[in-house]
Amino acid sequence: MDPEGNSKHAILERLLVDKNAEPVKPPLSLLEDITNRFSPHNQIGFGGFAVVYKVGKYMVAVKKLSNTYNIRENKFHQEVKCLMKAKHENIVRFLGYCAETQGEMEDYEGKLVMSDRRNWLLCSEHVPNGSLDKHITDVSTGLEWRKHYRIIRGICEGLHYLHQKCILHLDLKPANILLDDHMVPKITDFGLSRCFDEGQTSAFSEQIFLSRGHFSPELLRGQITYKLDIFSLGVIMMEILIGEKSYPEDEKVVASWMNQVVASWMDRLEALEGDTQLEQVRVCTKIGTECLDLDPKKRPNTGDIIDRLGKTGIVDYSDKIGISSSSVEQVSLLNGLKKEVYLLDVTCNR
Fold first, then answer.
1. DSSP codes of every residue in 121-141
2. Which of 10, 68, 149, 330 has the fewest CB atoms nearer than 10 Å to its CB?
């Protein structure tokens, strides 16, 4: 029995139990031990910049950055900084990081040279239900609207918290939103994130990393503002409402999406429980389209979005006392959305 090993493992156990515990700096040796030396059998995800491992019996995920020679050190520091500041129910919980450098002899142009090998790793809670992109399916066969709405609202709550903490995510997309056992969304992957100073509202970057369909046009000019995340949020909301992944490639796509929402939910009036849920569909669609405005100044901020969603969350007492909404009232609400679609079509065709 290895008392020291048990003591090291207890660090992770304590972090998972104590929600108020601060992130730690586990040694590389511990992370190698709990991932079985980064065994392929423990892999649960990978990308161009990192491989993610699940830690055996623990609800812990270890993200090991790849090709660290090509990653600027301040970029890793920026990600850790953002993660240290982000503590919210709708953000994946950060447990700690490892930043160790080892000297290794390597062949360079036929000669053995000593090089520094960077070991950069991030530890977080393991979120078992995978990413949102695996759950975006047609709403008639996928999740019921109540769960769709909770996911939308949770993402908005998480993004609102980040913006309050002066954090820009800059890579918000379904693949970077994880779902727990109760389908609670948690924003993850802060590899491209920026921490603004208090009062700062914009920055410029010559290094642009694009996720197809989820970036706003001004990013092509290197302009970085909070409204970049708002555009990405709009794409995600429309994808959830429509039930499929889409890519906004022209100025008429918003009107097209709204038409799809109306057509989709017209066939599902019976699936919605009372006027409250139908109003939620309408408001979410309206917010989603506003987030996709090509003019960043016209996009809503997260505070406004949270307020508007909050007003649709009032309990629908007609469900509780056995009174169902009439189909006439439901069609009336959808016709209101249809009118908004028509006005948007007219605007796009001018």
1. EEEEE--TT-BGGGT---TTT
2. 10
Q: Domain boundary residue among 94, 125, 156?
A: 125
Residue with tokens 């820009």: 168
Predicted model pTM:
0.82
64 annotated ligand-binding residue: yes
Q: What is the DSSP letter of 58?
A: S
Q: What is the DSSP letter of 62?
A: E
Question: Is the residue at 15 inside a domain?
Answer: no
The arithmetic mean of pLDDT across residues 232-252, rounded, is: 76
pLDDT tens for each residue of 318-331: 343 333 444 545 55
Judged against a pLDDT cut of 80, whether residue 153 lies above it is answered with yes
The catalytically annotated residue of 107, 171, 180, 293 is 171
Q: Kindly write down the DSSP assignment for every residue of 174-239, as one continuous string.
A: GGGEEE-TT--EEE---TT-EEPPTT--EEE-S-----TTSS-GGGGGTEEETHHHHHHHHHHHHH
Residue 171 designated active-site: yes
Q: Kindly state whether residues 39 and 181 are assigned to the same domain.
A: no
Best CA proximity match to 298, nearest among 216, 202, 201, 227: 227
Tell me: pLDDT of 70 over 50: yes
CATH of residue 176: 1.10.510.10
Quote the CA–CA distance of 183 and 53 in Å, as a whole number: 21
Domain with 288 in it: 132-348
